[in-house]
Amino acid sequence: MRKISIFVVMVILAGVISFSAFGESDSKVLMIIREGPSHDPDLMIKMEVGTMNVLLKKAGFGVDMASLSGQDISGPARKIEKLMRLSEVKLDDYVGVIIPCMGITEPIASPEMVAMIKDALAQGKLVASVNGAVPVLAKAGVLKGKKYAFYAGPADSDFGKYFVITDLEGAIYSGQGVVQDGKIITCGGCPSSESNRGIQNRTLELTQTFIAAIRSK
């Protein structure tokens, strides 16, 4: 883990991050990027999306990124380019789906995103979601009866800003760490949560868990 961590840090600090897959791979992962106002888009592009991208490619996976609009996503200094539109995605092409938090403070989930998450799980694919993107899984109705992670628990005042309780029927809140329950992997910490709330960033751990789960299928 230490060697991988050093590799990720060196690549990110060097600025050598490509947001399109380099080379062809028989196994590809779909990264769904939520669009909306972010606390710190440069931080999330660099330390969340960048970390996921580097780890997945180092593990031998191709990475495609998609959003509802397919438009570039920019911060003051950094940008994600070459995104697909969700309507263009052929889910059969991918072994798993991963959804970064992006520091977006609202549980933004388009009908297209919800449908894709449901279809991915119905096809037996792994779905991983980080912190602010976890409520998207709840909106899709796939957390019912499952263990899940989030930065806040049901007793916290922030919880109701993200979740509709009826979307969590039977769901089991399991803390802020990385939690896997069947084909669903969640965590309650991202670079934004670490910067703004002092909650540990779990992006690297979640991505490594996602990779290991795909390989064990």
Characteristic key phrases:
17% strand, Rossmann fold, 7 helices, alpha/beta, 7-stranded mixed sheet, 34% helix, 11 strands
What's the arrangement of secondary structure elements?
Blueprint: H1 2-14, E1 28-32, H2 41-58, E2 62-67, E3 73-74, E4 79-80, E5 84-85, E6 96-99, H3 111-122, E7 126-130, H4 134-139, E8 147-148, H5 159-162, E9 172-173, E10 179-181, E11 184-187, H6 191-197, H7 203-215
Parallel strand pairs: 1-2, 1-6, 2-5, 6-7, 7-11, 8-9
Antiparallel strand pairs: 3-4, 10-11
Tell me what the structure shows:
There is one protein chain. The protein has helices spanning 2-14, 41-58, 111-122, 134-139, 159-162, 191-197, 203-215; strands spanning 28-32, 62-67, 73-74, 79-80, 84-85, 96-99, 126-130, 147-148, 172-173, 179-181, 184-187. The chain has seven helices and eleven strands. Helix 1 crosses helix 2. The protein has a single domain (2-215), classed as Rossmann fold, CATH 3.40.50.880. The strands form three sheets. It has a seven-stranded mixed beta sheet, sandwiched between helices. A two-stranded antiparallel sheet has the order 3-4. It has a two-stranded parallel sheet with strand order 8-9. Residues 1-24 have low confidence and may be disordered. By secondary structure, the protein is of the alpha/beta class.
What is the CATH H-level superfamily? Answer: Class I glutamine amidotransferase (GATase) domain
Please report the total strand number as a whole number.
11
Major sheet, described briefly?
7 strands, mixed
Architecture in CATH? 3-Layer(aba) Sandwich
Q: Note the run of SSEs as H and E.
A: HEHEEEEEHEHEHEEEHH
Q: Supply the number of helical segments.
A: 7
Task: Determine the mean pLDDT.
Answer: 89
Q: What Rg is obtained from the alpha carbons, in whole angstroms? A: 16 Å
CATH topology: Rossmann fold
Helix content: 25-40%
First-last Cα distance: 21 Å
Give the uncertain stretches in residue-range form. Answer: 1-24
Count of spatially separate domains: 1
State the CATH class.
Alpha Beta
Which percent band covers the strand fraction? 15-25%
Query: Structural class from helices and strands?
Result: alpha/beta
Shape: globular
Largest sheet strand order: 5-2-1-6-7-11-10
